[in-house]
């Protein structure tokens, strides 16, 4: 069959895999000059339909009113609004994106483009480039790219761009048929499809300098990020008795929690959430969280108290270093009512003297541990009482103190830093929490020397801290500030009782899939 582009369908017949083909003889003429059409008609070699025209079809220069796009049979018609006035001496480029598909098989005619000029020439300048995410270094996909006229910085929030382009799956873009002039080049993750920048809900990327055609470079790499946002509560769960949860867009550095309850509140942070534990006889009360006030009306108190049982929620770390604290997390804030019922034992004997303290839901046991030994903690029945009045049944938890043979030595070097720049380096545990931090300035190399650490995997994140605030900062279009350069590197799994070393070059590309680890990125410390 030669190069026939058909495959065998499951039923045995041939399946069409070719996109629709334009019939140029019947369709509106391409590259026509001195042309100001009110409608354009395109004929294809098979029945077609238009899908998601509002999202897929871009017209540059931008039009004020959305055109009407209709498919019927083998024909697609684009009809301009009767109020639309085309610009004089302008080359118009209409990109249909992935909107045109064949009716039966759904094969897409990708990026079908039509152009004409209202003047006597076709503008021929081009701009190409790509957009990558500042944190993941992965290509972006769902952005629109705009060329705006030079003017007020707020123009990206109030007007459509003059020229529009879209990103490919590889994060690349191309503007064609552009007139000479001065432009701002901006990429927006336009979630509401209004072709405008709606801060702070949309990611943005932008060229550092204005584009001056035909003199500027014609390839740009743009780096995207969300702008800095004011911390605010975006959702809440407040009506179940005993606990209120507030989810933030980002947790504020200083968090105020208060109430008119008359009894203690216990609050704790967890990633992007704040959990508040309380007990009350009131039907309603107010909680003040950050800058907001919430009226709490607890529900199902009796059902909660009937079901609730004070117990261990989690042992935070069961394999300890000799310098560690043994931490046990309960499922509710509690107090100790009989310290004689909290007992610690090693593999040989009960220990008569040790220290402990309670903070919210956490019991911390402090003792001069001996390496290589196992320890058991026993909390006898009714030793502790939580804020809901429940006491515990007998509870047990164990830990082991790692011996030198269970640990390792690790030398980690970061090189090829710019001596004129300031960097923050974080060594991260597997769960994304911080293990070690260093700030580097006036040096091209920094080395961590770790002795007697767990043989875990330690990742490394590095960012160029331009404003010396010890946290990574995103870009800000209105301040003309690009995102701080950020890279994250995956560490190897270390082996017990072995010396290891690793050298990372700041000039290397990141080697970790940060797209699936964004929630672990240390935006601030």
Structural class by sheet pairing and helices: mainly beta
Poorly predicted spans: 1-10, 515-520
What is the subunit arrangement here?
single chain
The share of residues in helices is under 10%
The overall number of domains is 5
Q: Major β-sheet, in short?
A: 5 strands, antiparallel
Q: Whole-number average pLDDT?
A: 91
Structure description:
The protein starts with 5 loop residues before the first strand and ends in a 20-residue tail after the last strand. The chain has five domains: 6-117, Immunoglobulin-like, CATH 2.60.40; 125-224, Immunoglobulin-like, CATH 2.60.40; 233-306, Immunoglobulin-like (Sandwich); 308-402, Sandwich (Immunoglobulin-like), CATH 2.60.40; 406-520, Immunoglobulin-like (Sandwich). The chain is elongated. Helix content is 3%, strand content 41%. The strands form 13 sheets. Strands 12, 13, 15, 16 and 17 form a five-stranded antiparallel β-sheet that branches. A five-stranded mixed β-sheet has the order 27-36-34-30-31, with no helix packed on it. It has a four-stranded antiparallel β-sheet with strand order 19-20-23-22, with no helix packed on it. It has 525 residues and is mainly β. Strand 32 (355-359) and strand 33 (362-366) form a beta hairpin. 28% of the residues are buried. The model is unreliable at 1-10 and 515-520 (pLDDT under 50). The longest helix is centred in the middle third of the chain and has 7 residues, at 301-307.
